[in-house]
């Protein structure tokens, strides 16, 4: 039987290269690839369908690091003093440290003059200041604003200058890494208290517009109630803070001002009443700084005059109660006492430390310099006997 020949197997023509036109774009590429290479394309499709999602493989960016807690926020007692920035701003750190303080307050510019231009601190000086402060472990750093600033003023020129000056205060405080910027609320002569409170709140918002304050907190200081000043009543301070809820704000309690406003800090009962009042109005949790000043003037005088610790109307025993009161634990106590003779600042710092049961010795070369005139070179004629004048003096003035 003759074998029947098998018909020849026809081979499929090789697939031609697909050419993508610009109109098709990159999205058409996978479909063309599948059409061109059937077996390979199906293998890729099976491989893709077999992938299993593993949540561990998903990229997750690292969370930002938690803000570092400053070393001075360790719960220890913080005693500070207002020091001078004359000559070199970093010198204020050396003075405070040399006096035995572990905190300080400064002005960032001349407090009794309007700054010319921006009056900014160079980054080199600011960086050196921040670094040296970390080395010395000083904190908190409190900056007091310019005395000329009056955000409550109804005078448009003074108000504009005040807003601009306070803006510069905030910028300098941020550059130095300050923790708190203390400001007097202001004086309102026209329009009453309500208008003044509104103007202060609006001025604070305008001065800080566009700035990221970071860790900086703005503190309003209570006043003695002299003249038309705002802030002797803590209800007024609360009203300003309530109108500035978007700003990191609190208060600074001045003991001399509180005493002059009528709160008897000299007695234990008076201190308790004052602290209860502050807690019920503003809240003691919003009072991180206390200006520890004795008062030259009597209770309720409404006159702002500071005195050395223990030498004024409040007295040493009262300051011991203030410094060790459980409701004021963790606060920074900053001295603004006068300097009447060399060494007054050193003695006031030591006085506060003794009242909390510690003896701190200041370094000898630091402290208030003597107010004697600086030495100068003698002039050429100095030390010589003056020559007699050739003109004869008349014995009688009338002749």
Architecture of the domain at 78-355, CATH level 2?
A: Alpha-Beta Barrel
Quickly count the helices. 11
Strand tally is 10
Low-pLDDT parts are 28-32, 368-399
Q: Which shape, going by the Cα principal axes? A: globular
Secondary-structure blueprint of this entry?
Blueprint: H1 29-36, H2 38-49, E1 78-82, H3 91-98, E2 103-107, H4 123-136, E3 141-144, H5 156-176, E4 180-183, H6 192-208, E5 217-221, H7 234-243, E6 249-254, H8 255-260, H9 268-281, E7 289-292, E8 294-295, E9 306-307, H10 316-324, E10 332-335, H11 344-355
Parallel strand pairs: 1-2, 1-10, 2-3, 3-4, 4-5, 5-6, 6-7, 7-10
Antiparallel strand pairs: 8-9
Structural commentary:
The chain contains eleven helices and ten strands. The radius of gyration is 37 Å and the shape is globular. The strands form two sheets. The protein has an eight-stranded parallel β-barrel. Strands 8-9 form a two-stranded antiparallel sheet. The longest helix has 21 residues, at 156-176. It is α/β, with parallel strands linked by helices and 399 residues long. Helix content is 33%, strand content 10%. Helix 1 packs across helix 2 (38-49), helix 5 packs across helix 6 and helix 6 packs across helix 7. The model is unreliable at 28-32 and 368-399 (pLDDT under 50). The chain has a domain at 78-355: Divalent-metal-dependent TIM barrel enzymes (TIM Barrel).
Name the features.
399 residues; alpha/beta; TIM Barrel; 8-stranded parallel beta barrel
Task: Compose a concise summary of this entry.
This protein has about 400 residues and is an alpha/beta fold. The protein is built from 11 helices and 10 strands.
């Amino acid at each position: 039987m003759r074998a029947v020949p098998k018909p020849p197997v026809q081979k499929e023509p090789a697939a031609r290269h697909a050419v993508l036109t610009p109109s098709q774009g990159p999205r058409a590429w996978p479909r063309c690839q599948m059409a061109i290479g059937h077996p390979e394309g199906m293998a890729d499709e099976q491989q893709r369908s077999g992938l299993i999602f593993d949540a561990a493989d998903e990229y997750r960016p690292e969370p930002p690091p938690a803000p570092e807690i400053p070393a001075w926020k360790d719960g220890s007692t913080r005693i500070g003093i207002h020091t001078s920035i004359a000559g070199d701003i970093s010198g204020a750190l050396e003075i405070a440290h040399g006096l035995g303080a572990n905190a300080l307050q400064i002005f960032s510019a001349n407090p009794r003059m309007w700054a010319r231009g921006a009056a900014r601190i160079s980054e080199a000086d600011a960086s050196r200041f921040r670094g040296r402060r970390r080395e010395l472990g000083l904190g908190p750093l409190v900056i007091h604003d310019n005395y000329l600033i009056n955000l409550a003023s109804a005078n448009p020129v003074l108000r504009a200058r005040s807003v601009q000056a306070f803006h510069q205060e905030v910028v300098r405080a941020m550059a130095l890494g300050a923790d708190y910027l203390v400001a007097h609320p202001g004086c309102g002569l026209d329009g009453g208290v309500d208008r003044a409170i509104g103007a202060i709140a609006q001025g604070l918002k305008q001065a800080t517009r566009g700035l990221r304050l970071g860790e900086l907190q703005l503190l309003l200081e209570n006043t003695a109630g002299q003249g038309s000043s705002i802030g002797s009543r803590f209800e007024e301070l609360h009203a300003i803070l309530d109108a500035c809820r978007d700003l990191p704000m609190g208060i600074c309690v001045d003991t001399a001002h509180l005493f002059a406003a009528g709160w008897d800090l000299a007695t234990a009962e008076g201190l308790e009443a004052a602290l209860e009042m502050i807690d019920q109005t503003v809240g003691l949790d919003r009072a991180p700084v206390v200006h520890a000043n004795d008062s030259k003037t009597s209770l309720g005088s409404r006159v702002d005059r500071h005195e050395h610790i223990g030498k004024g109307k409040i007295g040493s025993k009262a300051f011991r109660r203030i410094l060790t009161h459980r409701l004021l634990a963790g606060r920074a106590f900053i001295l603004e006492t006068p300097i009447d003779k060399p060494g007054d600042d050193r003695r006031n710092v030591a006085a506060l430390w003794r009242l909390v049961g510690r003896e701190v010795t200041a370094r000898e070369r630091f402290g208030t310099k003597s107010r004697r005139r600086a030495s100068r070179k003698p002039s050429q004629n100095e030390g010589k006997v003056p020559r007699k004048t050739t003109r004869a003096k008349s014995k009688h003035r009338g002749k």
